[in-house]
Design a protein that fits this description.
By secondary structure, the protein is an all-alpha fold. It has 5 helices and no strands. About 75% of the residues lie in helices and about 0% in strands. Helix 2 crosses helix 3 and helix 4 runs antiparallel to helix 5. The termini are close together. The model has no long low-confidence stretch (mean pLDDT about 85). InterPro entries: DUF2624.
C-alpha cells in the first residue's frame, strides 16, 4: 500500500493547474482555473503527504490563505477522494 501512497503524493507534489482542473471535474469539485493555478504553484516542489492528517491540514490552511477558504474545502475534498481511491 505504501507504493500507492507514494504515487499519489508524487502526483500531488508535481500537479499542474490543468491536471488539477481535470481531477476537480472528475470528482465534481468546484475550482476555477485561477485557483487551480495558485494551488499548483503552491504545491510545486513541496514534499507533502496527503495521507498524514496533520500535513494535509497544514497544507489546506496554506491553500486557504492563497486561494480562499471555500477553495481549500473543495481541495480537501479532492485530496480525500484521492486518498480513498
Amino acid at each position: 500500500m505504501k507504493i500507492f501512497e507514494n504515487i499519489i503524493n508524487h502526483k500531488i507534489n508535481t500537479i499542474t493547474a490543468e491536471e488539477l482542473m481535470k481531477y476537480a471535474n472528475q470528482f465534481n469539485i468546484s475550482v476555477t482555473r485561477g485557483q487551480a493555478r495558485k494551488i499548483a504553484e503552491y504545491l510545486k516542489g513541496r514534499n507533502v503527504n496527503i495521507f498524514d492528517d496533520r500535513e494535509r491540514s497544514k497544507l489546506i490552511r496554506e491553500i486557504a490563505k492563497a486561494a480562499g477558504p471555500q477553495t481549500a474545502r473543495e481541495v480537501n475534498k479532492l485530496f480525500t477522494e484521492l486518498a480513498k481511491s
